[in-house]
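Input sequence (251 aa), recorded before submission:
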Amino acid sequence: MMVYPLSPSDEDLSDLQARLGVRFRDEALLVQALTHPSWVAEDALGGHMPPHPSQETLVDLGDPLLWGVVARCRARAYSASLVREPYGARGLYSGRYWPSQHGRELGLDDLLRVGCNEPPSLRSQHDLVDRTMKAVLGALSADDQKEAIERLVSDWITTHPSSFAALWTGRRYKEPIGAVKELYSRRWGARAPGASERFTGPPHRPIWHLTYDLTRVGLGIYFDSARTKQAAKSGAFSSAFCDARHVGLIR
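Predicted structure, token format:
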């Protein structure tokens, strides 16, 4: 793979489109999505007319399209009574998973055209990968391929349930106990296990055990020196989400 000023090559663009599962009608839009403002600025200072504008306008186009798909996935997966904190969930989802994680999976950080004077680490910055992924979605929209945006985002949610679990929980369910209790009561009309049934171990090293009367479902979350509370909560939500799908609590 080549680096500025020749990147991305025709082969790079072809491989990226294969990973996206879509062919651009106007490939110049994809190149624009991969063009950082620093690249355009340096080219202009050199007296050249940049062949492509920067990704900025495509970022603005792609961002609302991303959240439109997220909102539709939320509406399909959960009733309005279960999803009560869309704004907190939206921020958590954006910050941790999509689109920066998927952008790295697609190799956007390596393909981005940046100025020669920018630090090598620029391509790998979280915010920049995030914006580049949104720019690619914006490029698909400008290429009149909005159905590809719907597929890309919804397929990623389906194959990465832990990310959608984070989206689903939001501010209201900061504790895994609350999330599991809600799922349990909606399915069986019964209470989830009480506090005495959940906690074992010494106070400074608690072990959470959520065992409830569902087919092949058990959730054990461990808090120890090697795991932060935030990581444990994230794992709890992910496990609860996968287990709930497995037994038909949510579809």
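Checked by second reader. The longest strand covers residues 207-211.
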